[in-house]
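User: I'm writing a tutorial on reading structure tokens. Could you give me a worked example: one chain, its sequence, then its tokens, then a sentence or two explaining what the tokens reveal?
Assistant: Sure. Here is the example chain.
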Amino acid sequence: MQDAPLKPFRFADAAALVRAGVPVAMVTIVEVKGSAPREPGIRMLVTGDDLIGTIGGGHLEWRGMAIAREMLDAAAQGEAASLAPDATRRVVRIPLGPALGQCCGGVVQLAFERLGPADLEWLDAVEAAFAARRTVTRAVPAAGPVRHAIDRTPLPTLPAVTLHEDGSWTDLLAPDEMHVVLFGAGHVGHALVKVLGTLPCTVHWVDERDTLFPAGLPGNVVAEATDTAEAVVDEAPPGSYFLVMTHSHALDQALCERILRRTDFAYFGLIGSKTKRARFEHRMVEHGIDPAAFVRMTCPIGVAGITDKAPAMIAVAIVAQLLQVRDQRLAALRAGAPATQRDGGQPGGSESPAHR
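And here are its predicted structure tokens:
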């Protein structure tokens, strides 16, 4: 396995590996009983010398990689026909006890799929559905073609997987809950993209100056140079996480007004101080924004307690806050309650580092 930083799992990477002719297996946690490192629906990709994603690390992940590579080796040696259906698809029960040197005490069922050209149909359908913020249901038999259907399930939606007695399974695939729209390609913007590029999210990075975007962006980041940033606000999908930190206070304010006219975003953070917030609120009232909307604007941004103003420190504080909101939304979803942003400032009443 290479020593590069671990990449998060993405179906797009699975499709790319298949198209490149790289032998690859997908490992999915399809059932958990008791305590386990990760939850059902978590996936990783395994090749002969690489790993994308993680099912929790430790001996469970090591065992999962070993089984996946056994399947890949069998196919490479021309044994697939004699091992079918196990050579392409199988489910393995793994107790998390002394045999693995773990004390979790739970039991995990791992599903293994050796991916090939026949899987490109559903892999491409998943990418198209995710781009449209739609969900996909897969029906995976023990052998034979995978069936899929694009759903209209409202987002955010929790990924789900059901293991059946015959060794088949059904899973609901949902796009990443965090769709971040980041305005501004300054120092903090660059630092944010480095962190967000390692997380299960999608990022739409916007600035007027295309020369500020670096080469080699993470796979989950799309950069757009435009002088009509307000239109990007209108086009963002419901449930977006907006971050505003451009080079211009005038543009910041215009974006604030545009965002606050929406009622369907998950989070809106404006970089700046309490003084900047007060000035913006005063001007926005003059422009017809209802003061009641200001509770949905977080400024200053970033979790409390981190006071260092270095760009990397600010980025970590901001991402930590985004993850807090994400987890609150997912917890509310599990409980069947609505998830809305009611922040209005800084959790805990302390200053964040994101002042400007």
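What the tokens reveal: The radius of gyration is 22 Å. The chain has two domains: 11-173, 178-349.
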